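Meet the record:
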Amino acid sequence: MSSIASTTSTVWSNLRGLIRTMRPQQWIKNVIIFAALVFDGKLTQPDLFLKTTLMFVAFCLASSSVYIMNDLVDIDKDRQHPRKRLRPLPSGQLNPILAVVGAVTLASLALGLSGWINIWAAVITVAYLLQNIGYSFYLKNVVIIDVMVLSLGFLLRVVAGVVVVDVEQFSPWLYVCVTLLALFLGFGKRRHEIVLLESGAASHRSSLGQYNVALLDQIIGIVTTSTLVAYTLYSFEAKTALVGEGRMLLTVPFVFYFIVRYLYLIHVRKLGGAPDELILRDRPLMVNSLLWMTTVVLLIYFR
């Protein structure tokens, strides 16, 4: 009986570890797939909403596969990290063989589901998986390029939503805005890692040894300004037939507050290591984000 109990305990421990490694709390990043549906004025069309939801599920599966793969690649380095060493793989809670099986299964399910939606959805899913394979095995160690590749992942999420919806009024400026915002969050995360790890940063990831706080502060300054300019230009350019001339400018203050609040959290509160968790846990950021989304929906759908 004791051996059966021990085996059962091990199985459940591995399953819990696998679910933790899948990072379901980070699936919120995939919500951006709905951008095409919302900003093209088609949120109320049930068939397109269903297809976009299925694409969201496919990307959740694909991103979880990527997280598992990345933890497998970094298992030794993560053991040196003050937070990451507690993850299931470096801590020994999750068997690496089970992790490999899980990653392959999730990627296969993601490809099957996206392929069922349409061929272009499958192509974007493949591109996302290849991008992250490249990041995990090499590009994460190339300074500047590491963050640019991560921002590409967010751009691909937007494109994934676009290929599902037959967009008619979706502005290309939104591609620029999403990419710049991803760069902002990415370089903010690098800054937090350097401050947290100090002299041990380079041993955790070689690219971190090529950054310094002064450089990252300059880059973040450039990106934040570019983000505000790009979003303001989008607000001017937003399709008059969809929103009404100049009405989207009402959302610019929310974007400004988001950026300034996030800068405050990075510089004063020394946070920013997990942008998705920070946005969900910081009440002012969460409330601001909800107000922005509500205002956008009201402007587009209740003219």
Summary: The chain has a mean pLDDT of 87. Residues 11-170 form a domain with the Tetracycline Repressor; domain 2 fold (CATH 1.10.357.140).
